[in-house]
Amino acid sequence: MDPDRDDAPLHRAFVSVLGEARPVGAGVLIAPRLVLTCAHVVNSALGLHRFTMPAPSRGQPVTLRLPHADRDRALTGRVVEEMWVPPRSRPAPGRPSPPPPGTLPYYGDLAVIELDTDAPPGAEPAPFLPHRDGNEVVAQWASGHALTTLRAMPRVSAHPWIALDVLGGRVTEGFSGGPLWDRDRQAVVGLVVAAHETGHSAGRHQGPPAAMYAIGLSSIEAELPGLPPVAVPAAGRGRQQLLAVLEQLLPSRQSVRECEERLAARLGRRSAGAAADVERLAGTAMGVRRGVPELVDLVHDQLAECRPGALAEPGGREQLLRIARIVSPREQLSLGRRRNLTALLSQCRVTDPAALLRAVLPYAERLPAPSDLAQAMDVLEGYDAPPGQPMPPLLQGVVRVAVEERAAAGAGGEHLADDLDAWVRSTAPRLGVAPAAVDQFRADASAAHAAAATCTQVAAAPRVQVELLPVAPGHLFTYQIWVWSEDGRHEVVLTEDTEVTSHQVVEAIRRVLRTEVREHPETALVEFFVAHAWLRLDVDTWEFPGDADDIGFHPGVTRRVVLRSSERTRETYAGWKRRSSALAASPRLLLDERCANPTVALARLEASPQAGIVVVCCDRQQQGRVLRQCIQAGVHTVLWHREDHSGETASDLLALVEGVDHAHIPEAVRLERAKALADPDCATHRGRRLSLLHDGPDHRPPPLAPDAWALTQP
Prior knowledge:
The chain is an alpha+beta fold. It has 22 helices and 21 strands. It has a six-stranded antiparallel beta barrel with strand order 1-2-3-6-5-4. The longest helix has 19 residues. The radius of gyration is 28 Å and the shape is globular.
């Protein structure tokens, strides 16, 4: 590690997990006797298969060492059975099953070890914070040696994993379970869990792997609801204001002591007892994740018990809520209320998380694409109510979910909606929201939902999404295949980390179509996510020949096949959003041979800031550069011919997309490809070598492809 940077909090909490006296993985100290790590690290330390499902018994001790606190002292610990979450390949935790051979689990893979004795002097629990895009992180090898580290940059964060590009160092098994350390924020933001193995990382070529994966804090909390609240870096903003309002609301030492004892018990910390004062009370709350909302909850209870009239008095209570948002700006709910809400939301199947965010926050920009309702509530929790609106976005979201669940449940099936309503009734007063405001908003939301229900909804076709990672010169590939469907499913179903041919990729896609999509009545859309350098891959002409009794499979004809870019950036978002809003009326733009010059192409794109559909017709040697410029400008759809760039072809392609709705362009291109195959004698048919980049506003990227903040789910 760089000796000029202060990584002392990481060093004091870094744990090595030993197997047969050698390090097999790492972990992080989260309490004086609790260590958080990966389940597969524990299995390896005990000499078991890494994907073993049953929790190790209390009679199977795990050996650990805190190398920066006491390198020579070996500690023993035992797995906490209630917080054992083995690796699994499906989101549902209730039916754990090991992942198929050769695949990554993607879910679970967490364990908490309880030490037999307190950690040695000098060791302290690590501070945690949620992952933040754009912040470089470091990871440390199991030995604890300060020089055995690697640097990584997060590529995209989506439940359940964070994908990172390795900038320096090399991933080995000893990094598993170790903390990702954000030096700028001085906090742990995740646990290392896996690496993407390619030919480079397998030893045939020297160099870093394509990607490393980590489990973020939100996923850790979702998988381990019983985990004690983790520490956070000590906050300074608003501290003096918090002390002043606490002295006003808790004027006696007895009331301060009672609140401090209750707060310490709720947060799993040791109480100061008779030494408790306002300083210790505020410090305990500000040093623990969700500690400030917990303090607000306790003060509410204290006032209700000892000074009931104080809750109705203006001033102190409202001031405490306002200061709590300053000290802890993205947290409104106490730990218990957040866990209760998450448990209820996990049963909801009706509400679309992204649609919920758009409905509650129509004025917000750059909203992420949440994978579930719990993540959507995390986003809503960070927003204050707009001026004149008594209901905060968080409560608005929960009420909307309850309304939709009640409408879909029918007679006798409304218990889930009743539970959500009860949660809102209990939580609203603690957030300073009057019951009348909740009732009025619920009535308005119910009326709006009933009116919308009269409109017929057309179910979206399922999607098979292939994150394709070509290996130069583009004849071999590794891949991951995802399935998205209108019922809310979006998960990885097949991975391949060894290099295979295009025939094997197509065979895998066909197998997924048969076993996962099950031949939906409407043709499934096949989307290839590739980097800009590989946009001209002939994926739409690939085929699987089959055997004597099988006609084979040609995806470019039997399915709508499109390319999507996996390299959109923050800089493209403004243009993407502007062109998205103008798609219905914007003209089609032609970039022909005259635009092969990058300066000319850039000028044409800037002169047409609303054009979302572009036809490229220039020499194939220049196509890659022009395609990249289209992506950087935020263009949604690009149609081009890989070989022919004559004026006649340009006219044909413009005519093909003229008057066609944006969502129907993939089907129009599929028909042209089919017509070209149906006429084998015509070698110049425009459907041959026709390719489509379709990054439209209905883009739903897989978690390990484009940044989710810039794109929306259909």
